[in-house]
Batch of 2 targets.
Target 1
Amino acid sequence: MAKRNKLGIGLDIGSRTIQLSVLRSSKTGIVLDRVASKELPHDTIVEGTVMDSQVLSDSISELLREQKLLGKEAALSVSGRQIMIKRIDTDEMTDEELSSAIMYEARSALPFDISEVSLDYARMPQELDSGRMEVLLVAAKNEIIANATDPVRWAGGRPGLLEAEPFALQAALSEAGYLDSESPVASLQIGFQSSDLTLFHNGQYESNRNLHVGSKTYVEELIRELGITFERAAGILARTHRTEEEQHALERIAHGVAEKLADLVERAMPEYFGSTAERHVGTIVLCGGGAHLPMLQQALHDKFGIQVEVANPFKHFGINSHHVDAARIEQGPEYATSVGLALRALGEIHTGFDLLSPSHKKAQKAAAHPGSGLVIAALSFSAIFLGMVMMHITQENRLSALRSKLDDLKKDTDVYRDKIALVEDLTKKRADISARIDVISNLDKNRFARVKLVQLLNRTLPELTWLTNVQETTTPRGPGFNVSGITSSNLKVSQFMTSMLQDADVKGVDLLVSEQSVISEVDVTQFTLQVAFPPLGLISTGPQTPADELARNAKEFRDKRKAQSEMKKK
């Protein structure tokens, strides 16, 4: 069992609110020492991207200072499309062999250069003597890790652990007993801008999907229905006491949004929620700030006919009544992730992953032992100097051997001159045939690209939005297209961009133009988006490319052979 810490601090930074949970380990069990939250100004974080780092850092600093936790280590998380979770099937191997092979496996499984990401991995439970094994790989780009940890450091905190949110939820729900069921259990973490659907089976992670509906959808519909400001709409959603007009509007909106979210859940995991599913989910557990959204629990129950519970991650903890009041306990679902992070920070039986980059971990060790810097520097210099001397001797020996080998090769070149010429001729012919075959193959791959483009636009185009132009182009992320159109508001443009980003073939969407204008006395928004769409770039740039490359290689070989002949004459 891992060493138990006396204090575990979990800090969950959402797009709308920062939640803090502090757990304390005692002889009788785990005690909820304190919980607190801090609301962020609107658009401080958008789609997981920090738009105002100063405001975020100040809010975190204020929260830590109020709870007297400045300078203490805290566990953080990353979620949604910011993380990559991959299952790798490979041959059975020991832990030492796996440690050596994991970088090779990661290069094959991840869509990024391995130097750009930080990763962690774990062996999955498996049948004995199968000869195969599964490894769960969790990774995030280094810039994502920096965006998650830097504001906490600037605020006076110490990032001690960086966990993927599904595994923080796994720790919290497991401790609360929600994952004890033999049937699969789904957790629906409802955030402000999006939701995460995570499936667990036998208490372990199975899969995860990100859904583009969250509490913000309710707010946007209230704005459209009542013609009010964002702050007032958010206030209506948060309050329990509303005017009759506000209550009727919210009920109409809630019914449609809840059904939409239920449909997204079914489409995201049809193998568990579809009408023909072979493995049925037994329970849905609602977590996050949107767990108490109106009509959501009933809509999910009506849709799937299964038990739907609102999570209470505190139910098996002792409560420090001096710091935690009853109102905070009622907000339990909002703190599910921060509680899971605090459990991970305690070092209890809830194991998981740590995505802190190696450089950051080394910096922490250096900070813990500041007097060791000079000793390490001196040892490093001595080792480098000795290494340079040994390398010089080794290189001299290798150069002597290579000179002798070069003389032998010069003699062999004259013997095989005619054969080399024949090989060059055959190489050219082979390159020509290969180039023609590649053109045919690329054309075949690309034949459905435009059809997929039209289907993408048809599927993602919002209501009250008309397209005026679609043109293929080259984007900073590769092949793609520019799409221009007219719509009723900037919200429709944002909805259009978000919907396209859900498609697996879309690698990025950028807003090039957004202008307000008037058409027939109606205010409209004219926009142009640039979409990275790799399927449009499968056609080869020209049939001569492989042949030209081989021809250049052949020319380099002839030039080298000519130089060798001249050297021999000299």
Target 2
Amino acid sequence: MKIPLAISILLPVSVLAAQQATPNPPATASIEGTLTDAVTGTQIRDMVVTAHGPGNPAPARSSDKGAYRIAGLGTGAYHILVSPDHGYISARRYIHIQSGQDLTAIDLKLQKEAIIAGRVLGSDKNPVSGARVTVRGLAYLRGRPMMGSQSYDLTNDLGEYRISRLNPGAYYLEVDLRRIEIHKRKPLAGKETQERPPVMANIRTYYPNAISADGASLITLRAGEVREGVDVTLLKEKTICVTSAAVDPIANDLQVPTIMLSETYAGSQSLIASGSIKSGDEFEICGVGPGLYRLSAYIPPPDGQDEGLRYASIAFSPGNREVNLPPLNLQPSFSLSGKVGVAGANPEDSLPTGIRFSLEPKDRILYRGEKASAQEDSNGTFTFPALTADPYWLDVFTVPSGYYVKAATLGASDALSVPIQAASGARLEVVLGSDSSSVSGQVNDRENQPIADATVVLAANPPRSARTDQDGKFTLSGIIPGDYRVAAFTGLQDGLAEDPNFIQAHFGKATELTLSPGASISTNLTAQPVD
């Protein structure tokens, strides 16, 4: 039987055109590997593995032999993340994948969690139950120090605590009774003076016996270490009362100011006391020990509304006498507008788009109703809708390729190196440079073999870092032209890449680079191990 050859040419022309115009779909890629214990080499089952990158590939779970596979990946860069579970901390790998590529042996070695445990005793040496024990670590965010809370536990009736799921690193241990209350101030019966005298009491204590992190000892934990016997005896010091009032002329019975007293850290806060007091009523907070504090009062927007925040705060450091602070006069939030420009650009030139901005409070968290993020529009303008009078750090994100933030000013003040007071009424001006430089290259070990997942650090202000992919390759882009030093490390803990003390100690033999405007430099680096 003969097959008629003319069948193909009898198809309608429109069908043929559609067939010719339909492109082949891009080939998807996949990765696979094995999860093992970093010390014993044992294969680890039932761990969730996720690929973060282009698209939204489904996560995988490791098999009985520790194997995993993720399919449906597009072209681009991915972070492969293993979620913490079964006594292991999280792990990650950085890869770059091509269209249709099937990568194998993307293996991850998981480290066991570290654990710290001990007892809390009062100044009388008796166990303290219900004390909050917090593990805090000093990290750096875009070059700024930040004291963060890693985890916490409450002591039992024997004063015992146990904190797990800790990454290897150096930590401060903070112990706080958290029994301070806020209440309406009552007159002292039979007293001519209203001043409350100091009272000796157990206060917040940092291991082993300091009243602040500045005088505390760091506790360094290795992966998988179980550190027992980390006991803390609470210090007994003079504590005082803090008095003030929150005043809001438009508050009603349904809008009662929330009062919060927090001890401040670099880039963070720790809540000491909170409560609600009617507008205009004088309140007191007794049992406050030495430290740096911020007292704040706020009324959030009504339920279901995005606007209407009212807020006031004051920073102070108590002495040995009662602190009488001025009233907290709540003020409505306000907006801050800004403009993006490009250095040397003509007025008719188009502006880069997609830039996002964030204002981070200097020493506290964001409150409900405070809106401190913005995105530029097609005219290069942006607006932060609801801010307070407190100081903020400016951060700029998603700057397009080829550009960098050259300058940012609020009125006559530099908005990049110091916190800004957004209540000044001035406009925020952000200037981009369009002549950014880049550094790429290869990281090898001393045997000249490529190293995956090494950390490349560029000593800039703030420092920049990148991870090598499965072939040891890296790229750092959007760099301000200038003179730099660059080095590569293995075993670098998260956060150390931006620590100025680490850079000072480990960059003695770093590679020196001069990046001219618009330059793209390639360099090979030998990785240094970090103990």
